[in-house]
Amino acid sequence: MRVKLKGINKVTTKLASGERATYHYAWKGGPRLPGKPGDPEFIAAYNSAVQQKVVHSKDSLQAILNQYQDTPKWTGLAERTRRDYVKHIQKIEERFGDFPIGALTDRRARAEFLSWRDEMALKSRRQADYVFATFASILAWAYDRGLTDANPCERPGKLYRAKRSESIWTHIDEAAFLKTAPERLRLAYLMAVWTGQRQGDLLRLTWSAYDGTHIRLRQNKTQRRVVIPVATPLRTALDAMEKSETAETILTTIHGTSWTSLGFSASWRKAVARAKITGLTFHDLRGTAVTRLAIAGCSEAEIATITGHSMKDVGAILDEHYLSRDSELAESAIKKLEMFESRDKTPK
């Protein structure tokens, strides 16, 4: 007789190969279980995970981590974001699951947490920032609900600082990619750089969202509605693209099916490598779009209207990552100054 295990979270996903795979987790946000349901190793791993979860008292950080994953804030996260958070939470659980909630008010707690972040940064500063930001967000939620009297992780600053050369697709990069990439990925590039939208939103975008002049969509992560006028280069590519008979999405595979996130990412990496481009990702096209709009003279409000960022986020992107040393922006500024000075000194 098969033992019925309570709370198992079953997740089925489509692999890059097109095949479907099913994974089992001890609970939502819990550890992944090896083998198949009913296998001895599967049951043993489940019992071990549950036992470790129970060991932590209600006065430990584990209790806060568990409660957070039962909240509307958690369930409201995009699936991709939730998967990333699970990985971060597991790291927090392993290190601080039994940390007493009452000790969060001790000034030494912040030092201990920051030391842990420094340890993670030895492998990856960016990843250390991501995990610590998740930790800070969860403690902020707990503080707002009276579950703790302090958040020793708030405002830690960042360890990772992206260099502009690592984050911006130049026109040289663009030409190299468009020259070698297949048509369907060229369209994906144009959609990203002319709309500033996230990969997931573009992969889900259907033909019904495009009326020949505008693209209308609701962003999955923020639920913001954006209406984007379609520029001529993108409109030309969209109008020339043959619609799939089997998929409603604009972006499709060579077989005419909708992309999976993993499948698209794998094909994108191959196309980037073929173009001999290094250090740039599809996500960087969102920042590239912000940068190009700014260089073209758009205000932060205009940029936010197109990309769906908040104005605060647009300002932060431009200030911290992209425009601090942009030579094109500097040249544009000097030309404007020259024009102003010339006009001001013209004999009347």
Automatic annotation (TrEMBL):
Top-rank lineage group of the source organism: Bacteria
Do you know which InterPro entries this protein is assigned to? DNA_brk_join_enz, Integrase-like_cat_sf, Integrase_catalytic, Integrase_recombinase_N, Phage_Integrase
Q: Domain Tyr recombinase spans what residues?
A: 154-335
The record ties this protein, via SUPFAM superfamilies, to:
DNA breaking-rejoining enzymes
Q: Keyword annotations for this protein?
A: DNA integration, DNA recombination, DNA-binding
Q: What Pfam families does its record include? A: Phage_integrase
Q: Name one GO biological process term.
A: DNA recombination
Please list the GO terms describing molecular function: DNA binding
Q: Which Gene3D superfamilies match?
A: 1.10.150.130, Intergrase catalytic core
The text of the family note is:
Belongs to the 'phage' integrase family.
Per its record, how is this protein called by name?
Answer: Phage integrase family protein
Upper taxonomic classification of the species?
Bacteria, Pseudomonadati, Pseudomonadota, Alphaproteobacteria, Rhodobacterales
